[in-house]
Amino acid sequence: MKKLLLTLVSLASALTVALADEGMWLPCLIGERVADMKAKGFELTAEDIYSINQASLKDAIVLFGRGCSGELVSAEGLLLTNHHCGYGQIQRHSSVEHDYLTNGFWAMSRAEELPNPGLTVSFLVRMEDVTERIAAGESSGAIVESAEEGGKYSASVESLYYGNKHYLFVYQVYRDVRLVAAPPSSIGKFGGDTDNWMWPRHTGDFSVFRIYADRNNQPADYSKDNVPYTPKRHFTISTQGAAEGDFTFVYGFPGTTREYVTSDFVDYTLNYSNPAKIHLRTLRLDVISEAQEKDVATRIMYASKHASIANAWKKWQGESLGLARRKTVEKKEAYEGRFVEWAKGTEYEGVVESLHAKYAELLPYAITRDYYNEAIYAIELIGLASPRTLAADNVESIYKDYLPAIDRSVAVKMLKEFGDNVSAEFVPQWYADRLAECGSVEAFVEWLFDTSRLTSAADIKAARAEQYDFESDPARAMRVAFDGLYREKIGPKYAALNREITALYKTYMRGQMAFEPERNFYPDANLTLRVAYGSVAGYEAADGVYHLPYTTLDGIIEKDNPEIYDYDIPQSLRDLYASKDYGRWGVALNGHHTIPVAFLAKNHTTGGNSGSPILNGRGELLGINFDRTWVSTMSDLDYDASICRNISVDIRYVLFVIDKIGGAGYLLDEMTIK
Ligand code: ARG
Ligand code: GLU
Question: What one-character-per-residue DSSP string does 125-158 give?
Fold first, then answer.
């Protein structure tokens, strides 16, 4: 009996240990986690992570743009994020003469740092529980307005735990953010879409920016008189690395997770949405890839589109595999069964049943919406037939990366899928009529592209000169017809049902917390600042296959192949490897003297965490988070500590590239490197 008890106790504690890697915690409540963190190797205090009275680590972290994270690494406003987060800026500064995407960019003085109008970074000034104020009848608009102090700050009230809590987030937003350095894409995007979401990984996914401020260190629009921003805090960089088992934490802005939804949502994702979206994107990617293989110019033109279509496409496949393997739907159904029993006679009675019913009502709208987004709006011509294009004077730049031949093939495939899968009530009359007239999807697409004047910049300009009526253009008419039907029959209904579902979740969330009083509930990610923690760890990739948590320069050299675009490294990197000129960055790892490149850890992260600092127990910078493994991606719905890993680029590789490839060693002088 005693033995059995002991086994049960150790099983239970093994379970909590395993579960504890899950979670994206609010910095202001991190005190509740610190005992657990300390037991695992954290050496600081809750106040070091988040404080409103003194500088803390949060003051060295920014929301970069609208969907990435970044961290300060010098007293002069120097900031690190991912190459893929700075990609748009790097691309915008690139031209045939200065191809920074291909060759990299290294500002050799402050004067060479490049401004990026529209790019902002946001520091969290404070966060505050305003649940009671809202409950007492204060409006979130009024709370936001007073927090913004007449424009000094930017604030928002966000709902957490499905409206059971409300938090005020107050940000200071800097608007003069300059590009300082970026490695060549053959380093920053090494492995391309082939290696994306994969391990072993060898991507040097970083870029360097600098925040500028006015003379009073306050946010200002770009001006040559601005000066480097002095942060309250910047990260100390550790060159010691972290070994398997060592404590790490990731501090940044995760975008969206849905850990507390019912089986209905997971079932929809796994059995309806993901398969449809994956299939549609496979068709699109096949057309694009085939054209890219035939022609180098096409490859370059469609590189960025291909990358972004492929990114989610690959993620969904990993997610579906994970959800199926974890039997997440069945697990949730069983949980809901237990919940329903327990909820009898409580205020939570009936909530799960209501959610099931509402999701059933939502289903046709959700599927149709997926087909609109992933089939109809995947036809580039429909996107181009917009008021923006009609009004633009820079039509050439809008059409710079557009090939109607590709779009025609895509359109045929997308419209066939749409026709086969969307019920007649959601097909616009305009389209049904034209399709009937033309007799087939192929003939319709031919007519559409042959007749439309919106398929090239030259044609638009010619049509303008002829006083052509663009509103009668078939592409424009098609856009108006699909937009119109969506707005009439899909969008509002979809939104209304989702509002009802969200209201039910408010009850269900509270119910789950009452049902499992011992469980540590963290709020789903919503692009607010969070702390995740976990150790450096490899994983069992397949039966008998263990993946080590570190990759090295030696692995880059193994993959290097001038014939394969994704694996063609710069000659300078080959030379450094040949001469073993690693300077202070070389270490003994995986059995050789080498440069560490990327590493795995158990931190619970998601999209938006790209660019987040990954830190050791002393809060020193070990690297920059940039991805998860493919088999982890179901963690947005169902985290599994045994297999979910975040991927970071090792800071020593970043410094090595800045120093030896970029020759921008002077940047290292302003960093605090230990
Ligand atoms: N998978 C990473 C993320 O979700 C990186 C994406 C960029 N890289 C790429 N090859 N598409 O954002
Ligand atoms: N690459 C993702 C991003 O841009 C992070 C990967 C993920 O964890 O989803 O945020």
Answer: EEEEE-HHHHHTT--HHHHHHHHTTTTTSEEEEE
CA torsion 201-323-529-172 (nearest 10°) is 80
**Exactly one of 122, 409, 610, 635 is catalytic; which is it?**
610
What's 50's DSSP letter? S
* Residues 420-467: tens digit of each pLDDT: 999 999 999 999 999 999 999 999 999 999 999 999 999 999 999 999
Q: Is pLDDT above 60 for 15? A: no
pLDDT at 590: 85
114-169 residue pLDDT tens:
999 999 999 999 999 999 999 999 999 999 999 999 999 999 999 999 999 999 99
**Owner of token pair 């004047």:** 453
- Of 605, 631, 645, 647, the one to substitute when testing ligand 2's pocket (max ligand atoms within 8 A of C-beta) is 605
Q: Is the alpha carbon torsion for 275, 279, 281, 282 positive or negative?
A: positive
Distance CA 187, CA 184 (A): 6
Q: Which of 83, 84, 202, 306 is catalytic?
A: 84
82: nearest Cα among 649, 484, 513: 649
**Residue type, position 109, single letter:** S
Q: Which of 2-11, 264-273, 572-581 has the lowest mean pLDDT?
A: 2-11
Question: In this predicted structure, what is the pLDDT of residue 299?
Answer: 85
Answer whether 0.85 is exceeded by the pTM: yes
Residue 238, sorted as left (phi over 0), alpha (psi -120 to 50) or beta, turns out to be beta
Stretch 322-344: mean pLDDT, rounded? Answer: 98
> Is 207 assigned a catalytic role?
no
Q: Tell me if 364 sits within 8 A of 423, measured CB to CB.
A: yes
Residue with tokens 């795995």: 600
**For range 197-202, the mean pLDDT:** 98
Q: Which ligand is nearest to the CA of 69?
A: 2
Q: How far does the centroid of ligand 2 lie from the alpha carbon of residue 255, in Å?
A: 9
Enter the DSSP assignment of 25.
Answer: B
627 CB under 6 A from ligand 2? yes
Residue 51 Cβ contacting ligand 1 at under 6 Å = no
Rounded-to-integer distance, Cα 412 and Cα 434, Å: 14
pLDDT in tens, 595-651: 999 999 999 999 999 999 999 999 999 999 999 999 999 999 999 999 999 999 999
The reply to whether ligand 2 has any atom less than 6 angstroms from the CB of 252 is no
pLDDT at residue 489 is higher than 90: yes
Q: Say if residue 16's pLDDT is above 60.
A: no
Ligand 1 centroid – CA 88 distance (Å): 13
Assess if CATH 2.40.10.120 describes domain 20-120+175-256+526-673: yes
Q: Domain locations in the chain?
A: 20-120+175-256+526-673, 263-515
Residue 568 appears among annotated catalytic residues: no
> How far apart are the CA of 279 and the centre of ligand 1, in A?
20
201 in ligand 1 pocket by Cβ < 6 Å? no
Whether the upstream peptide bond of residue 200 has omega within 30° of 0, thus cis, is: yes
Asked if residues 180 and 108 have their Cβ atoms less than 8 Å apart, the reply is no
Q: How far is the CA of 13 from the centre of ligand 1 (A)?
A: 36
Q: Verify whether residue 295 is a known catalytic residue.
A: no
Q: Cα dihedral sign for 636, 639, 643, 646?
A: positive
Q: Find out whether the beta carbon of 70 lies less than 6 Å from any atom of ligand 2.
A: no
Distances (CA, A) of 352 to 336, 340, 342, 439, 637: 7, 7, 12, 47, 18
CA of 441 to the centre of ligand 1 (A): 34
Quote the pLDDT of residue 554: 97
Question: What does the pLDDT read at residue 245?
Answer: 97
| Annotated active-site residue in 21, 48, 59, 205 | 205
Q: Would strands 672-673 and 236-237 be described as parallel, antiparallel, or unpaired?
A: parallel
